[in-house]
């Protein structure tokens, strides 16, 4: 798969690929499962956008059909699986987005799917992100201080003040996360057992 394919991959497309890495599904099951997990916090989920996304992923060779089912009077449901190219796309997309500070929506999805990478690589990428955040925060503080010295009224600097506080909070949170990730008792990787609630959600979404 070429880099352009990863570049065109949307956050919803990434989440669909990540879902299929858990097992083969039809789009209706994907929609139900994402809603059960409250993934609307991260991406817009509608029947139309999910079906359209799956179609685009299939055309790109990132997913493929594995069967068509019909139960009772329900319409036919096509089940999809993630291809090798699709699995690589997940890793490449997360690797690209995790250290970036200019795409907050993409970062949230990358963080949610960071478990697809090795722990050491995630730590390295987040350290790179921390450096970029610290630089941005430092520049903002200096700009704010300069504006104050020039007598710019505070009412014109409210957004700057908020951004400065948010960056400081993000740095504090990230420092704590890096400590947790570096601890040997923090579970990580494909061998981590899913919770009972997680398993129950998968079963409910199939019905």
Features:
elongated, 207 residues, 2 domains, two-stranded antiparallel ribbon, mainly alpha
What is the fold's blueprint, element by element?
Blueprint: H1 3-7, H2 11-20, H3 27-36, H4 47-59, E1 63-69, E2 77-82, H5 84-97, H6 104-112, H7 119-149, H8 158-182, H9 196-206
Antiparallel strand pairs: 1-2
What's the CATH class of the largest domain, please? Answer: Mainly Alpha
Largest sheet: 2 strands, antiparallel
Please provide the ordered H/E string of secondary-structure elements: HHHHEEHHHHH
Total number of strands? 2
What would the average pLDDT be, to the nearest integer? Answer: 90
Could you estimate the helical fraction of the residues in percent? 55-70%
Q: Determine the strand fraction and express it as a percent band.
A: 5-15%
How many discrete structural domains?
2
The low-confidence parts are none
- Within the CATH hierarchy, at the fold level, what is the topology of the largest domain? Arc Repressor Mutant, subunit A
Radius of gyration, whole Å = 21 Å
CATH architecture of the largest domain: Orthogonal Bundle
CATH superfamily placement of the largest domain = Winged helix-like DNA-binding domain superfamily/Winged helix DNA-binding domain
């Amino acid at each position: 798969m070429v880099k352009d394919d990863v570049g065109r991959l949307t956050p919803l497309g990434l989440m669909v690929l990540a879902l299929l890495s858990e097992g083969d599904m039809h789009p209706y099951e994907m929609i139900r499962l994402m809603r059960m997990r409250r993934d609307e916090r991260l991406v817009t989920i509608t029947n139309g956008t999910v079906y359209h996304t799956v179609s685009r992923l299939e055309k790109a060779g990132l997913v493929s059909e594995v069967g068509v089912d019909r139960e009772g009077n329900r319409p036919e449901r096509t089940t999809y699986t993630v291809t090798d190219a699709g699995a690589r796309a997940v890793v490449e997309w997360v690797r690209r987005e995790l250290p970036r500070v200019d795409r907050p929506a993409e970062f949230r999805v990358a963080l949610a799917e960071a478990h697809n990478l090795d722990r050491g690589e995630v730590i390295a990428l987040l350290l790179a992100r921390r450096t970029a955040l610290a630089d941005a925060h430092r520049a903002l503080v200096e700009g704010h201080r300069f504006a104050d010295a020039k007598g710019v009224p505070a009412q014109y600097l409210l957004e700057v003040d908020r951004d400065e506080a948010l960056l400081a909070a993000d740095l504090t949170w990230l420092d704590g996360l890096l400590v947790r990730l570096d601890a040997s008792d923090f579970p990580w990787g494909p061998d981590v057992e899913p919770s009972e609630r997680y398993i129950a959600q998968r079963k409910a979404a199939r019905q």
